[in-house]
Amino acid sequence: MHRFFVPPSCIGPSAVELAAPMAHQIANVLRLRPGEHICVLDNSGWEVEVELVAVAKELARGRVVRRRLVASEPAVKITLYQGMLKADRFEFALQKCTELGAVGFVPLITARTVLSAVGDIDDRRAQRWRRIAIEAAEQAGRGRLPVIHPAVVFQSACEEAAGLSLIPWEEEHGTGLRQVLRERFAPEAGRGRPFAVNLFVGPEGGFTAAEVDLARRHGITPVTMGPRILRAETAAAVATAAVLYEAGELGG
User: Fold this and answer.
1) How confident is the model over 39-85, as pLDDT tens digits?
2) Is 124 left (phi over 0), alpha (psi -120 to 50) or beta?
3) Residue 109, CA distances (Å) to 156, 196, 214, 248 in order
4) Which of 93, 179, 206, 211 is 20 to 30 Å from the Cα of 25, by its Cα?
5) Which residues pair with 198 in a beta bridge?
């Protein structure tokens, strides 16, 4: 069943109306017809199953069949503090971590951030990021969209991060990501299990030693992800998946 995030105003008590360009997608791209069912979401965590009753490129109408709470959102809330990357690489991290279940993205300006990457952050880029997140969330069956925050400098991010905060770093050789996560998410941890996890992932070239020292002073734990050096966008997805696995959110 095709899924669409829509403004709350589109969903009434018993009927749904979808204007262009969504109606165009339904009618001309997906070629859906009256009688077929879709699912619409208003970013509240609820999904509404709808039977289409009229389909045209300017307006599609449907009848509400049922409402249900989306069960796919992870209990642990992951925010990715991602060092700015070249456009396609940052978008890859955004797409894949949205699919996995991250609830927030914070673009980071770091010592090794390429200045041109920062210059690319304008309204058009922000809108593109939002479209990528919406499409990824729809594809993955999520009930909420991640929040894409404005870019911040590294020090400010360290000061604002609350909850369990980890910074994968290739120069860390003592404390492993799995070690920290298993200690915090073990059954015996009880009420000490983290509600939120912040992941700090560097740009191309990684974090500097001074940045990692600053992070450590703010309670952010440097961790190793193993002997292989991963691209930043790969590290973001792997670290997100690792948190979800240890929290019991992957694999049933």
Assistant:
1) 999 999 999 999 999 999 899 999 999 999 999 999 999 999 999 98
2) alpha
3) 10, 22, 14, 32
4) 93
5) 79, 165
| Cross-strand pairs, 100 | none
CA distances from 30 to 22, 23, 55, 232 (A): 10, 10, 11, 35
Per-residue pLDDT tens over the stretch 125-138: 889 999 999 999 99
Reduced to 3 states (helix: H, G, I; strand: E, B; else coil), residue 21 is: coil
Q: List the chain domain ranges.
A: 2-69, 77-246
Residue 207, helix vs strand vs coil: coil
Place of tokens 């059954």: 187
198 close to 218: Cβ distance less than 8 angstroms: no
As a whole number of angstroms, the distance between CA 142 and CA 182 comes to 26
CB 107 within 8 A of CB 93: no
Residue 1 burial class via C-beta count within 10 angstroms: exposed 0-12, middle 13-18, buried 19 and up = exposed
pTM of the predicted protein model:
0.91
What CATH number matches the domain at 2-69, 1.10.1040.10, 3.90.1150.10, 3.40.5.10, 2.40.240.20?
2.40.240.20
Give the number of C-alpha atoms closer than 13 A to the C-alpha of residue 44, restricted to the C-beta side.
Answer: 14
CA 153 to chain centre: 20
At the topology level, CATH places domain 77-246 in Alpha/beta knot (3.40.1280)
